[in-house]
Amino acid sequence: MAFSAPSLKGRALRYLAQREHSRAELERKLARHAEDGPDASAAERIARALDELQAAGLLSEARVAESVLAHGARFGSRRLRQTMQSKGLAPELVASTLEQARSTELERAREVWRRRFGSVPADAAGRAKQMRFLAGRGFDGDVIRRVVPSIGAADDGDPELD
Fold this sequence. Notes:
Modulates RecA activity. By secondary structure, this protein is mainly α.
């Protein structure tokens, strides 16, 4: 007994069962499997399937943004912005989500630094390495300067390490 290929809506549900997807992501993924039919073009068939999922509450851009924020605890606001923009989220939603993330960015950067390094750098090269690491994770420069201790900071009781 052979099974027929899943419908576009079925494929979208399968993708959504794995993780939250934005509408733009699902459109890209479903475009590989959609064909023009006698009643509608491939783009119209995809839009119809996604509209049904959105009406049922199974497709939500806000949940995608929350998911990025929850899984992005190791990343700074620049990296989170890039991730949300690549998912095709609305600029207003990206801005509001980033505002939430900025309130905890210093704490997240300190935790990432502590887990990766946890000690004051021995020299300027070590400090630069730590700063590059945090910059690669998408943290802003002012946050990085507050997190990465200066050389000799352990001796003078720098409050930034608390």
